[in-house]
Structure formats: structure tokens, C-alpha cells
Amino acid sequence: MVIAAYEETCRALEGRMRGNKTPFIGHPLGVADIVSGELGLQAEAVTAVFLHEANRFQGESAAEINSSALLASFQSRFPADVIEIVKSLNNISFISLQQTGLEEERYRKLILSYSSDPRVVIIKLADRLEILRSIDAIPASKRNSKISESLLLYAPLAHQLGLYKLKSEMEDIFLRHTEPEQYRSITNSLKATEKARDVLATRFIAPLEEKL
Fold first, then answer.
1. Nearest 5 degrees, angle CA 52-CA 168-CA 108?
2. Whole-angstrom Cα distance, residue 127 to residue 129?
3. Which spans in the chain are helix H?
4. In terms of Cα–Cα distance, which of 110, 101, 102, 146 is closest to 128?
5. pLDDT tens column, 45-100
């Protein structure tokens, strides 16, 4: 199922490039890797990632995309719950900044209005994390807004879901781009104390290991 969805995406995105002239297929591959490898979701979620990306350029609105011939062809070949995730992701991708007011709670409610499946939110967070990790692939004029959105909307959402590693990485990327000197100072300080912290961690863990 995943392979079939990936092949559909390769065909649909053939020749399409990201802002840094790398193939666009790199984005869904990166999202799928986060969804499965880091967040532990199963084949249905990975399939939805690929089908959403295959279908995302089939119209100028969520309604057009969700009624496209390509998505209709998927409905007879992929499970109904996967198609519902794809449609929800399509709808969410058209949520505007004006609708959210850059307020996390309002954005969360908008997402939930499109789907009660928790995998949709997790996939959307993975999608944003991949964008941040590949921020150089975004046109320079859009980078700051993407980074700010991530801090104000996506990081709090990740925190609510208990995805603290994902939240922390988003915050780190925000700091690296908005306060590069402060980020370097913190990074250097952490490197300077790394050995001492490792020793402390080892001393803390040793009696626990013995008891276990």
C-alpha cells in the first residue's frame, strides 16, 4: 500500500521542484520518515502522507482538490480511513493566517473541525517539522513567516500532545534563525559542559540500573 502511494506521488510530482531547485518528492519522503521513524505511526498514516502530496496541486481550493479526478481514483484503491485523512490534510493546508489569528487554540479547533482522527494532527506537525528542517528550500521571502507560525501555532500544539522532542526542535530552529548569536552562545555553552553533564548522568543512572 505504501509503495503504491509512493509511486503515485512520484508520478504526480514529476518535474516539480522546491524553492532550492531540489525535487519536491524530497518533502513527502521527509515527512513519511518523521511520521514512521520518529513518531511511530503505521502504514496507513504514511500512505496518507504520500497521497496528500500527490493530490495537493490538483486545484486552487480544498474543495477542488477533494473532488479531483486523481483523488477519486485513489478511493477505489486505498482504504476509506486513509482517504479521510488525505481529505482532512487537504482542508487543513488551506487554513489561512487570518483564520488562525496566529492563536494556537483557534488553530487547534480549526484542525479538529476537519477531523477527529488524531493522526491528522500528528502528520501535520511532522509536515511542518520537515519544512523547518529544510527551511533553505523555502523562498527567502517566506522563511520568517514559516518560522514564526511554527513557534506560535505548531510548537504549542506539539506540547499539548506530549511531543516534547518535536516541540523543542521547532523552538531550537526558531532561535537559530531569529537570534543566531544567542543560539551560538547557548550551543557553545552546552558543548563546554557536555562532559560534566555526561558524568552526572552516568552517576545518576548507575544506582537505578543496579536496582532494576
1. 50
2. 6
3. 2-12, 26-33, 43-55, 62-66, 69-75, 80-92, 97-100, 104-114, 118-133, 140-149, 155-160, 164-178, 180-192, 194-211
4. 146
5. 999 999 999 999 999 999 999 999 999 999 999 999 999 999 999 999 888 877 78
Residue 206, SS3 per DSSP: helix
Q: Work out the angle between the directed axes of helices 118-133 and 164-178 (0-180°, nearest 10).
A: 30
Tell me phi and psi for residue 77, to 5 degrees: -115, -15
- With a CB cutoff of 8 Å and minimum separation 6, the contacts of 188 are none
pTM for the model: 0.86
| Residue 150, phi then psi, degrees to nearest 5 | -65, -40
**Dihedral angle computed from the Cα positions of residues 139, 31, 79 and 115, in that order, rounded to the nearest 10 degrees:** -70
187-208, pLDDT tens digit by residue?
A: 999 999 999 999 999 999 999 9
